[in-house]
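Case study.
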Amino acid sequence: MTIGLTPLTVSTLLSRVRSEPPLVQCLTNTVVTNFTANVLLALGAAPAMTDIPGEAGPFARLASGVLINLGTPHAEQRTAMLEAANAANDAGTPWVLDPVAVGSLPVRTALAAELLELRPTAIRANASEIMALAGLGAGGRGVDATDNAEDALPAATLLAQKYGSIVAISGPTDVITDGTSTLRISNGDALLTRVTGGGCALGAVTAAFLAVADGGGTDSRGRLEAAAAATAVYTLTAELAAAQTAGPGSFVPAFLDSLADLTDQDIAAKLVAA
Amino acid sequence: MTIGLTPLTVSTLLSRVRSEPPLVQCLTNTVVTNFTANVLLALGAAPAMTDIPGEAGPFARLASGVLINLGTPHAEQRTAMLEAANAANDAGTPWVLDPVAVGSLPVRTALAAELLELRPTAIRANASEIMALAGLGAGGRGVDATDNAEDALPAATLLAQKYGSIVAISGPTDVITDGTSTLRISNGDALLTRVTGGGCALGAVTAAFLAVADGGGTDSRGRLEAAAAATAVYTLTAELAAAQTAGPGSFVPAFLDSLADLTDQDIAAKLVAA
Amino acid sequence: MTIGLTPLTVSTLLSRVRSEPPLVQCLTNTVVTNFTANVLLALGAAPAMTDIPGEAGPFARLASGVLINLGTPHAEQRTAMLEAANAANDAGTPWVLDPVAVGSLPVRTALAAELLELRPTAIRANASEIMALAGLGAGGRGVDATDNAEDALPAATLLAQKYGSIVAISGPTDVITDGTSTLRISNGDALLTRVTGGGCALGAVTAAFLAVADGGGTDSRGRLEAAAAATAVYTLTAELAAAQTAGPGSFVPAFLDSLADLTDQDIAAKLVAA
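After joint prediction, the assembly is written out as follows.
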């Protein structure tokens, strides 16, 4: 019953992001804030990094989408994250959990468990993190994925079914599931793993796409396609950027330029989805 | 009685920044620290991001200028900001307030009100923020300006007269006033709004120029011209950079290169000031 | 008895970094986290910015090397730094102290003194900071070095002998000593000082090289050569990058590209070491 992601769906959702544009609140780690904001701006979305207690909640009510990334979860930010997730649920704002390095580190692992109970709209992570989150794996070595995306599909399915979340597993082939249907995107370039925040910024892009999902986010197929379209746009852009760059340094500006320039023709010509 | 900003004034002040160079202390948001420091270095100034309690005050006494930007005002930073502003006043160090997203978010709005009472040397913001700060508007949607710079001139004039501050309103035409005289700069490029920190870093550049203002900062015309010259250098650089770039990603390195290279000839040929 | 650093030693250690690769934990300032992580990735190492109490210690036991950089030492990070240094010592993980702006600022100066007693594997700083750390100088003006690297050699020797640390002093000629033998590297480019984090990221690279030092870090000559090789790779890369760039903005991506591409031939052709 699974029907793959079409270029038309990706183009339609990208066009919505560019025309609205969604306001994406990011509570993210100190390493990638700049890159994440610039990725959202290049995409055509509006970033806001409102992550302090007392503001994170009110902002999540106004935002179009929220990213909660556990990369460097300082105490104030942990409070703000719970505040934002609760407010997002209350206001119907879609939110994405990126459980960076969960499993091996105690503070973020406890926080991830707490956030999971708040039922994130989507979870984006690498295979090791998804398996750790589902209690099925031992966790990765820091931010490295030591497991294959496909290997984490049982864990992802379990998470999706238990928490009602879309689960997106990053890897050479990205696997995105709602617990019933599964989409796969085989775009991307290894240079994306040679740049910090390569995965983290995809979490923010996913929040932007969820904000414009079919069915206003209440429809599981709409949310699945939105998360997959985010991954498609992001990894397609990486391919286009890698084709014009000499290394990880020049890849970053080329990635942002390519994201701002991505066309329906690029999507139709390059998308490898199933 | 208003006389516009001349290329000679801009060149003279830029030359002073490059030869001193001023030490600019930045208490700024986590998203733009890196870009802001690199902008100051490309300009020829010396950045220092000293923003913890117990150090922010002592450093503000030694610094040539201080930027206080409210983008992500964590608790420790809020304490440090008040400490820095008080010490700056005490030592005669010029300081710039950038009230990011003030109006709609409670923590920074309360802090901005408190900082305002300390009479910032200059305030740099977009039109929505200036109007919110003056209590005349409802505030913007996060960091987006939803109002026109010229529309915020009454609010800016009120702030300038009440607090003795230079007020610089960013927009396609930048409007800078001391409450009596007003200067306008019509340089710049839309790419500056597609890069995070495009406005924030101008606050730091403004602090660098105030440090070399005519009259040692005690003269209102000297401060007005310094703030306007900062805006002119910054927006002229954006124009030069945009002419050689393919998108928001390549714009950032081109902007820094162009800032380091900006010549008196560029200023004479390109400045659009009134 | 001092024998200079050879290209073969540099190439051998670089090759080890690229093949292992070491996991480098960075507790560093908010300005340079992104650049530091990207430098480590371009080098071929694996960065992790785990810097919160409760996680910093456990992570330092697993990490291959740790960087503790005092650029913006917020309260939680200070706790995490002590936790990481103690755990690193306990587990035999090499760690690098970068005492940014020590001497003139009270909070970090007290912390640096405390960390020094924990006997860092290496200390990397500019001449002013080394002299301040040794109690021999007045400290610099923020992050600027106002003293010559060679002038700081007595202070570095004192620190090396007292704390058993390798001390690396950055400057046009970098001076690296274990308190008995001293190595000097005369590569590099002034553009490295026009980019924020130019020195800070070298601290992280030093941690990566110490993780692959001859003698597993227990041998003083092995550690000295590892720290010097880190400096050599870093400053050689700066030279190669500067040759292809127009200014400080384009220098950053070129630096990362050149670091990822650095060859044994480049090292043999360009290394200026004694």
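Observations recorded in class. Residues 33 and 49 of chain B are 8 Å apart (CA to CA). The first strand of chain B starts at residue 23 and ends at 27. We will return to this complex in the next lecture.
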